[in-house]
TrEMBL record:
Pfam families in the record: Thiolase_C_1, Thiolase_N
InterPro entries, A to Z: Thiolase, Thiolase-like, Thiolase_C_2, Thiolase_CS, Thiolase_N
Protein's name according to its UniProt entry: propanoyl-CoA C-acyltransferase
Domain named Thiolase N-terminal: residues: 5-229
Transmembrane segments: none
Keywords annotated in UniProt: Lipid transport, Lipid-binding, Transferase, Transport
Segments forming domain Thiolase C-terminal: 261-377
EC numbers, comma separated: 2.3.1.176
Amino acid sequence: MQRDVYVAGAAMTSFGKFVDRPLASLTEEAVSAAMADCGATADAVDAIFFANAAAGLLTGQEMIRGQTALRDLPELLGKPIVNVENACASGSTAFNLACMAINAGSADVVLAIGAEKLSHHDRARSFAAFEAGVDVEHPPFANTGEKSMFMDIYAQMTRDYMKASGATVEDFARVAVKSHDNAALNPKAQFRRPVTLDEVLDSRLVSDPLRLLMCSPIGDGAAALVVASDAGMVRLGATPGVRVLASVVLSGTGAPDQISPVTLASRRAYEQAGIGPSEVDVVELHDAAAPAELMAFEELGLCEPGQARELLASGHTAIGGRCCVNPSGGLLSKGHPVGATGAAQLVELTEQLRGAAGERQSGTPRVALAENAGGWIGGGPAAASITLLGV
């Protein structure tokens, strides 16, 4: 990073199904709380990056999503508002662009917002929105209309991973149990009830070997971050705390033998930050299905291939473990409002680094990593984002 960049303010709404609550209401709540978190006024904000993935498909609102979502905060209208869409990585991409604006010297205080309303009276509309995240001319699977195509994609990845690593369905169920345990400590999580291993294994089969409790839910929510330079922190009257060590966004190539863009982005982020994977203390990663936690942990270089399940069993990735994974409950249990997910990961990590995560606080972390991936092209994710934060 050319200039020091800080997370000055961070906040999110609860995640859940709010069928009758408009996107603007969710956005207003998150943005107002993030600005209050650092004492920011509208006058202090130079630019806004607003992330949303599915509003066009679910409500027909295209082109000016940020402007309409911020209509209940008229003091922010008139600012530069850039609308960002990058599948499930939309929120982290908005954050990346906010950091780029500060690094370019074009802004000193920037709002990065992710907001999504996926629940709908017609559930088929919600599933159809997910289908748009693949190459529609070359889809990996036929659309069944009964579930997200992404669960079929994750199921195939899971079967391949089981063959390569020796991981079992019980290992994936343990991921789900851990995620629900963590979410029970998170007042903003969509699912706050712990579950047992048997409950996970006995839940409905979605796409073999994935069970319902191994799959992230449809939901709604918003998250916002106030990002600032040194000069911006002075403008806000805020004390520097959480610093952005690296922010990388890459696309997948679509090639069948491609190296995962998650791996490539993480390598670039470690290099940018001047650290190694062993220095990471807490991680929020993209577990749209439970097996993805184990796969991504390995792709991020946080352990050797095939070792993730052993580290899960040892408590290494639990709250208080050496490298805690998804203390928020992750996508599995905190929820996955697509455009808000990446921003919400960064809200959680900011709270962890501040020591302000309450019952789910994992020690005194110094370095935090967020991995947010989205869409599907060829044989892998269409977008991958890695963010490293530190204190």
